[in-house]
Amino acid sequence: MLGLLSVIQKNLVWAIPVSMMFGLIYGYLFDAAVLKQFIIPVTFIMVYPMMVTLNVKTIFKGHDLKLQLVTQIINFIFVPLLVFFIGKIFLSGEAPKFALWAVGLFLIGVLPTSGMTISWTGFAKGNKEAAIKMVVFGLVIGSLAAPIFTKVFMGATIEVNMLHMFKQIAIFVFFPLFVGLLTQTLGMKKYGQKIWNEKIKPKFPPFSALGVVLIAFLAMSLKAKHIIANPGDIIIILIPLTVFYLISYVLLTIVGRFFFSKEDAIAMVFGVVMRDLSIALAIAMTAFGKQGMTIALLIALAYIIQIQSAAWYVKFVNFMFGESKVKKKETIEFEKDKALKVPEFEKNGSMIIDVKKILFATDLSETARYAVKYACSIGNKYNAQVHAIHVVPDVLDEYSSGTGINLSGSIDKKKWDEFNRKNIETAKKLIRERMKVTSQKVLEQMPHCPLSENRTIVTVGNPVDIIVNTAQDNNFDLIIMGTHGHGKFEEMVLGSTASGVILKSKVPVLVAKPS
Predict the structure, then answer these.
(1) Which tens digit of pLDDT belongs to each residue from 274-299?
(2) Could you tell me the residue ranges of all domains in the chain?
(3) pTM value?
(4) Can 35-321 and 357-512 be said to share one CATH topology?
(5) Which architecture does CATH list for 35-321?
(6) Contacts from 294-297 at CB under 8 Å and sequence distance 24+?
(7) What pLDDT, in 10s, does the model give residues 304-335?
(8) Region 357-512: CATH code
């Protein structure tokens, strides 16, 4: 089921319109009134997962006061005024539905910054930490200000019961926020912060996506007969929504280019345009009685424009803001040396590596015992598979290479194969024992040990060639190894292994040197 929900989450651009279409068909063919009872539970499914993943502690980090201040001024001064006047211009018809759609547009304007702000900021390679702060600030300020703003601006259009709106916001915002933070606290306490962040926390957002799809279905089902009887209403609604998002993107892009870095500007753009449609929809459908369904129609259609426009904006981020001006010191120094080859990840424009498979090369030495700490730690951090490889050197080949004489013809091949087989069995036995002890020690300090016996390779041959070929042929992301062997003879044979692997390997190599 989680796999299906993840597919829905990754394809919300299409999932929401499809859900709305099914809602339209269902509401036309059947009596959708019975679906009203599902509004509150579906809304909780939509909002609660977002609260579980919300990192409230980030509001105390960083030095981006100017960015946060400008974003919230736009959110709570400019945007409410913008949607109010757009409603006056485009939704001024005499029929009651026009006034209700204007209320829906205004609700979008006073409830900023949904959890999707963080996702879209990440997609566009913006400042995610700043985006998280915007979500927290926008959620709290918007929830408290929405009833007041709606009463002041729209009180002449529709009866606004501020106390009732505060109660609905408490149900749809503050209660899920409390339960979400409690879930976070208990989850981290039980499983540890690492397991919580890497294994449990990612399972929640897909349920939020399911809630969004279901709430869009409900909104369309409940208004289906009216929409089909009046198809022109869709065009009337989409025009002011399009104008609102277009003006927002243009204004924010200009402000971002002149006053902020690319990363901060991206966060600001999505911190404003990604309105909290989920909560706006929930309030519309529960706080305004029968009129709420008409209000909700506009908000439901806003999902289509909001998500589609965000997807297109991400494609043009570099055109809007240019390449990032923020460069690491190492990158600047690197670029000074014209003789060096530019790494492939820089050519592709990404500074993020995804480590899923690690090859830990061990020679059963003390330095290998030291290197295994890195293999376990990095594997645990990235939730990566760690495969151990031990190459038993073919001493006959080494002697032949060293003397310049092929000695294989003067030694019985069967006896030599038997000698190698015994070496492999001995090495496997030692590795099994080492794995068992290492796993126990690792588990004492971290909840997951990525090493296991079934991911162990033991073979005979040239260590450098076999390690390099194994890593490249099996799509490993990183090789980890120690610096040398564990004895005079072994050091003569294996001492150059690390340097040989570094020179020949196209896969990145981490060499651990004992301190």
Answers:
(1) 888 878 887 887 788 888 888 888 98
(2) 35-321, 357-512
(3) 0.58
(4) no
(5) Up-down Bundle (1.20)
(6) 294/96, 294/97, 294/100, 294/101, 294/104, 294/223, 294/226, 295/100, 295/101, 295/103, 295/104, 295/107, 296/104, 296/219, 296/222, 296/223, 297/101, 297/104, 297/219, 297/220, 297/223, 297/227, 297/233, 297/237
(7) 888 888 888 888 888 888 765 544 444 444 44
(8) 3.40.50.620
